[in-house]
Amino acid sequence: xxxxxxxxxxxCGTMCIYAQTLENMQWFNEPESWEIKDGRLMxxxxxxxxxxxxxxxxxxxxxxxxxxxxxxxxFEVKVKISGDYKVRFDQAGLMLRIDKENYIKxxxxxxDGKYNLSAVVTHHTxxxxxxxxxxxxxxxxxxxxxxxxxxEIFYSFDDKHYTMxxxxxxxxxxxxxxxxxxxxPDGNGFTATFEEFKIKHLPDQRRLEWLEKxxx
Length: 216
Hints:
Layout: H1 2-19, E1 26-28, E2 33-37, E3 40-44, E4 51-53, E5 60-62, E6 66-71, E7 74-83, E8 90-99, E9 102-111, E10 114-123, E11 125-132, E12 140-147, E13 150-156, E14 163-169, E15 176-183, E16 191-202, H2 205-213
């Protein structure tokens, strides 16, 4: 009986790991060329593609590649990002998306020859914040933590020390698509690579508070 229990436990663990693999995720605006190998996603980013709504530029676009899964509650997600950025606005990172009017995209964006840590937050209209880096980087880790009605965004260059770059609102108790996106608004495309993508479930904060107040 003990042996059977351990076997079932191992199978359950295997299924849980498999359920979070990249192969089980879905495409929104699938690019023409992409590959998943050894837990790594490489994509040839679609030329002339982006996510933006209205503000400053006066147009709306919603056509860049995005590989995602759906989460209904609170979670932490992170990924290691690299790319052969070539022209202005080439970008790659994480995306959290409720619908075409409510989403967050964050990662590296190449602007005027500089690497920038970038975050675009959209609620009907888009805003954009950047942190300019003093030199190019081969890769960066981006982490987003969804808690209640807020998302905290962090970056790291070693996956050990994380610095917060943005805290923004996102409607809670609402399913969200979460995954990896890249865009090439001005150019003819580039190659973006995503590694070590991981989502960790976080227990609902309000429920934890209720349980604490209502201990047996």
